[in-house]
Design a protein that fits this description.
With 67 residues, the chain is an all-beta fold. It is built from no helices and seven strands.
Length: 67
């Protein structure tokens, strides 16, 4: 599942390769990759400021990261 940043400038996407990818909505450019999970990333969400991302995985963990 993917999510848009509060300012609608980024989309964050969880992946089966254990990473979260951040893309520019404007041009589709890959901006950043966050790792840390041991399984498929099933869900991601930004906090209200857009600076913190939460991700959950099939490895039964949740990770908070700073964008």
């Amino acid at each position: 599942r993917c999510c848009w940043s509060p300012d609608d400038e980024l989309v964050a996407v969880g992946s089966s390769d254990k990473n979260v990818y951040f893309f520019s909505v404007k041009d589709g450019e890959l901006i950043k990759i966050l790792g840390g999970h041991e399984g498929t990333v099933n869900d991601v969400d930004f906090n209200s400021t857009g600076r913190i991302i939460a991700s959950s995985s099939s490895d039964y963990t949740a990770i908070l990261g700073e964008y």
